[in-house]
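Final report, Chapter 2: Outcomes

The project's central promise was a pipeline that accepts a single protein chain and returns its three-dimensional structure in a standardized token representation, suitable for archiving and comparison. That pipeline is now operational. To close this chapter, we reproduce one record exactly as it appears in the project archive, with the input sequence first and the structure output second.
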Amino acid sequence: MTNQMLSKVEGNVLTLERVFNAPRELVFQAFSEAEHLKQWWGPRGWSIPVCNVDFRPGGIWHYMMKCEDKAQGDFYGMESWGKAIYKAIATNEQIDYTDYFSDSEGNVSADMPSTDVVLQFVEFEGKTKLINQATYASSEALQQVLDMGMEQGITETWDRLEEHLQNVQ
């Protein structure tokens, strides 16, 4: 059984924590390399046919998630584009970036909230505690993404990450 994700909302900040049974270096690598991200990013039933990563401060991660699961009804065939701009990187310790909804050209969506994300990779009893702190412009912007099912999506994404980490160790 996978570890439980802890979730806490405080105003415009969402903090998520989960312990992964893998070395910190591997968990960090899973977030920093396209070949890893393609294997686990996104909720169940979604693939990442486009995943371009320029992993450096000022670099961009531009990707497209596509629903491949017919059982997901109206979502089947849907494409969702995202763009992250890396602000700071401390190898095996922390990744800071701003996450946006975008289009296929990388143009940021003005209708959807952006997120300032800080990922921390912490050694924890021979495993890795991942702490994801997501800051939104307002509590309403955070509520907008929660209402879209973001918490279920990230839970499934992190379940897929756990499975991926076990497969590559």
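Archive annotation: The mean pLDDT is 95.
This record, like all others produced under the grant, will remain available to the consortium after the project formally closes.
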